[in-house]
Write a structure and sequence with these properties.
single chain, about 350 residues, alpha+beta, Glucose Permease (Domain IIA), eight-stranded antiparallel β-sheet, two-stranded antiparallel sheet, 7 helices, about 20% helix
Length: about 350
């Protein structure tokens, strides 16, 4: 591994794009959260280089799968540094998977040429002194500091994001550690009071998509009893936050009812989507979010991030109770949202 030197980073401080900043300092989950709660849009924060280990829960870590307590403890340091600096869980998984490949999560005193530490960073490549790089907190900070300079890292496949930082001679090697990394992040994240239940898709997935609302699918796409149903109905409670499934541009915000107004409760006799939003994600893909409680919180022409709140679950329009009607269209033709999002790392149908 040759590494890539950090250049032009004044006093070790950089700007980082945070998609899931709600993870930091809070327990995840709640009545309307349904897991990781992304930030309202994309926020820029300052990230200093950490030179001492952040506070970790007291007590040792248990063996987890193939990973012994020392290895799990090193993963905890990587997660703690990422959480301290406000990075989303996606970044933690990339970092832990990278350390799995580079050092098997061991703080190695040596390696290829002058490589040392968890990430096998090289002093000759500008990462720091050998003593600094043998400090797991410092090494983790340097990894994150480079990661967040990679344009689009949040939506890259894990192995591409890791390779963009590491410049490894085996660029595809990181992919095989993704599931193990997720497992360790979930385990040690819970020890920090950031309870994660494996539902990372409720943050932004590795491919840049997010769950529009938590809850079971109460009516599917084009079922035998509803062959014209162009989306899926997600049975989330009234007032649950609706989130953009992917980054894009808002192209429609309107009230669509055949009688009355969207401010009144809908019913099966009323036609239309009620308050709804359409988002254009590019490459012919659009998504629709119907039956919102009140006028959506976004405007036509507004750019939104994956996971950004756009409204609240309600029952306006053609509806017999609170739920989100969610559609995916490709070049104007509706497609089943469940496999569409599953292919992008998001499972519709998660409980509230």
């Amino acid at each position: 591994m040759t590494g890539r030197a950090l250049a032009g980073v004044a006093a070790g401080v950089i700007a980082v794009v945070v998609i899931c900043a709600g993870l930091v300092g809070v327990a995840i989950g709640g009545p309307n959260g349904g897991g990781c709660v992304p930030a309202d849009g994309v926020t820029s924060v300052a990230v200093p280089i950490t030179t001492s280990a952040p506070t970790r829960p007291s007590g040792g870590y248990p063996q987890t799968g193939r990973w012994d307590p020392t290895q799990v403890g090193n993963a905890a340091t990587i997660v703690a540094v990422g959480a301290q600096h406000g990075l989303p869980a996606r970044g933690w998984v990339i970092a832990v998977a990278t350390a799995m490949q580079e050092s098997s999560l061991r703080n190695l005193p040596g390696g290829d040429r002058d490589s040392v530490g968890l990430f096998q960073q090289r002093p000759s490549q500008g990462w720091g002194t050998p003593a600094q790089l043998l400090d797991p907190a410092y090494a983790s900070s340097k990894f994150y500091a480079t990661l967040v300079t990679i344009h689009g890292w949040q939506t890259m496949p894990l192995t591409e994001a890791a390779q963009a930082v590491q410049n490894s001679g085996t660029p595809d090697a990181y992919a095989k550690w993704e599931q193990d990394a997720r497992t360790l992040v979930e385990r040690v994240g819970s020890r920090f009071g950031r309870a994660m239940t494996g539902r990372f898709e409720q943050c932004v997935s590795n491919l840049g998509w997010a769950l529009p609302a938590p809850g079971p699918v109460v009516s599917g796409w084009r079922t035998p009893d509803r062959p014209t149903h162009a989306g899926v109905d997600i049975g989330a409670p009234r007032g649950t936050t609706i989130r953009a499934a992917g980054a894009g541009t808002v192209v429609t915000v309107r009230c669509n009812v055949s009688e009355g107004t969207c401010a009144t409760e809908g019913s099966p006799s009323v036609k239309g989507c009620g308050y709804y939003v359409d988002i254009d994600h590019g490459q012919g893909v659009t998504t629709r979010y119907c039956h919102q409680l009140r006028r959506p919180s976004v405007q036509v022409g507004q750019s939104v991030a994956a996971g950004q709140p756009i409204g609240l679950v309600g029952s306006s329009g053609n509806s017999s109770g609170p739920h989100l009607h969610f559609e995916v269209r490709i070049n104007g033709v509706d497609t089943n949202p469940v496999p569409f999002l599953a292919a992008r790392g998001v499972r519709i149908g998660q409980p509230v």
